[in-house]
TrEMBL record:
<comment type="similarity">
    <text>Belongs to the AB hydrolase superfamily. Lipase family.</text>
</comment>
<dbReference type="InterPro" id="IPR033906">
    <property type="entry name" value="Lipase_N"/>
</dbReference>
<dbReference type="GO" id="GO:0016298">
    <property type="term" value="F:lipase activity"/>
</dbReference>
<dbReference type="Pfam" id="PF00151">
    <property type="entry name" value="Lipase"/>
</dbReference>
<dbReference type="GO" id="GO:0016042">
    <property type="term" value="P:lipid catabolic process"/>
</dbReference>
<dbReference type="InterPro" id="IPR000734">
    <property type="entry name" value="TAG_lipase"/>
</dbReference>
<protein>
    <recommendedName>
        <fullName>Lipase domain-containing protein</fullName>
    </recommendedName>
</protein>
<keyword id="KW-0964">Secreted</keyword>
<feature type="domain" description="Lipase">
    <location>
        <begin position="53"/>
        <end position="320"/>
    </location>
</feature>
<dbReference type="GO" id="GO:0005615">
    <property type="term" value="C:extracellular space"/>
</dbReference>
<dbReference type="GO" id="GO:0017171">
    <property type="term" value="F:serine hydrolase activity"/>
</dbReference>
<dbReference type="InterPro" id="IPR029058">
    <property type="entry name" value="AB_hydrolase_fold"/>
</dbReference>
<dbReference type="InterPro" id="IPR013818">
    <property type="entry name" value="Lipase"/>
</dbReference>
Length: 324
C-alpha cells in the first residue's frame, strides 16, 4: 500500500460510525472509497448479466479432485462426476476475488477422503467492479445459483437436504439470496463474515437471514466494519469476539480479520478444534462467566440442533483452532 493510501486508511478508520464514506479493501489490499448512501432500489435490473457466461460452477469430486468439470444447465455431459448420492457444497468467494480464494476449502473436503460434490462458484467477472456494482451483481449471482440448483434437483437428482451453500463476504449475502429463491429448502447456509457495506437497508429477501435455509450459520470475523455485526443465523460464532482477529496487527481496513473466515472454515472441515461456548457477550465469555454453558464446534460439523451465539478464541496462525 502506498504511504498516502495508508494515511487515508488511518484517517478513514478514525471517522466515527455514521459517516457517509468508508474505505473497502479489494483482494489485493488496495483501498476503494464506497459511498454508503449509494444505494439503488433493491430490484434494479442488472443489465448484461449472463449467468452461464459470467459464473463458472467448478465441480470437484474424488474422481477429479483438482481438475474441475463445469456444471452447465445446457450440457450435463460436462459434469459426469456429479453424483446426487453424495453431499453437495457450493462455495462462493467475495468482492474482487475468484475461486482461488476458496480453493483451500475444496482441498479440505477432498482431504477428508469422503465423497462429495464440491462446487466452487467463480463469479470473478461480476465481482470485479466498483463495490456498489458488484454488490448488485452478487444478487444476480445468488439468483442464478438458485436456478442451477433447481435444475440439478429436477434433472440430476440433487437432494437439497444434502446441500450446504458457503459464502464469504458478498458471496455470503449472495448465498442468502440463493436460499431465499429456493424457499429456504437448502439444508444449511454458512455466511463467512457476510458483507456489511451497503447492506444496512437491504431487505431480508436480498441478504442472509435465518429464513434462507433450514440452518443458517454466521461466522463473524470483522463484524462492524467489512462484515455483518449482528447475529444473522440460527447459530452465530464470534471467534475472538467477532470483530478483530488474533494476529491481525494494525488491521485498520479490516481486510486481515475479514479474510480469516475462509481459512477458519477450511480448517473446520479437516481438523475441527474450534470449540465455541454459548454466551451473551465476549467479555462475559473471557471472564469465564459462561464456562458452564453448552459448547459446540464451529463450521462444517456444527450439530444441527445448535442455536444461539457462541464465542471462542483462536490461535494467531495455523492451526487456528485451540480445542476446548
Ligand atoms: Ca434472506
Amino acid at each position: 500500500m502506498f504511504g498516502s493510501q495508508r494515511l487515508l486508511a488511518v484517517a478513514a478508520a478514525a471517522v466515527p460510525a455514521g459517516e457517509r464514506f468508508m474505505w473497502v479493501p479489494d483482494s489485493e489490499g488496495n483501498l476503494h472509497m464506497v459511498d454508503l448512501l449509494d444505494v439503488e432500489p433493491e430490484d434494479t435490473p442488472v443489465p448484461f448479466f449472463n449467468g452461464e457466461k459470467d459464473v463458472d460452477l467448478r465441480l470437484y469430486t474424488q474422481n477429479n479432485p483438482s481438475t474441475p468439470e463445469y456444471i452447465l444447465q445446457s450440457d450435463p455431459s460436462k459434469s459426469p462426476s456429479f453424483n446426487p448420492a453424495n453431499p453437495t457444497r457450493f462455495i462462493l468467494h467475495g468482492w474482487t476475488s475468484s475461486h482461488k480464494q476458496m480453493d483451500p476449502i475444496r482441498q479440505a473436503y477432498i482431504d477428508t477422503g469422503k465423497d462429495w460434490n464440491i462446487v466452487l462458484v467463480d463469479w470473478n467477472g461480476p465481482a470485479t467492479s466498483e463495490y456498489s456494482i458488484s454488490k448488485r451483481n452478487s444478487r444476480r449471482v445468488g439468483e442464478y445459483l438458485a436456478e442451477v440448483i433447481l435444475h440439478l434437483e429436477a434433472e440430476r437428482g440433487l437432494n437439497l437436504d444434502d446441500v450446504y451453500i458457503i459464502g464469504h463476504s458478498l458471496g455470503g449475502q449472495a448465498s442468502g439470496v440463493a436460499g431465499n429463491r429456493l424457499g429456504g429448502r437448502v439444508a444449511r447456509i454458512v455466511g463467512l463474515d457476510a458483507a456489511a457495506p451497503l447492506f444496512g437497508t437491504t431487505s431480508l429477501k436480498n441478504r442472509l437471514d435465518p429464513t434462507d435455509a433450514k440452518i443458517v450459520q454466521g461466522i463473524h470475523t470483522n463484524g462492524g466494519l467489512l462484515g455483518w455485526d449482528d447475529p444473522l443465523g440460527h447459530v452465530d460464532f464470534f471467534p475472538n469476539g467477532g470483530s478483530s482477529q488474533s494476529g491481525c496487527i494494525l488491521d485498520v481496513t479490516g481486510a486481515c480479520s475479514h479474510n480469516r473466515a475462509p481459512p477458519f472454515y477450511a480448517e473446520s472441515i479437516i481438523n475441527n478444534e474450534f470449540v465455541g461456548t454459548l454466551c451473551h457477550s465476549y467479555k462475559a465469555y473471557k471472564k469465564g462467566n459462561c464456562d458452564h454453558y453448552p459448547q459446540a464446534v464451529m463450521g462444517e460439523w456444527t450439530p444441527a440442533e445448535t442455536a444461539g451465539n457462541y464465542y471462542l478464541k483462536t490461535n494467531s496462525k495455523k492451526p487456528y483452532g485451540l480445542g476446548a
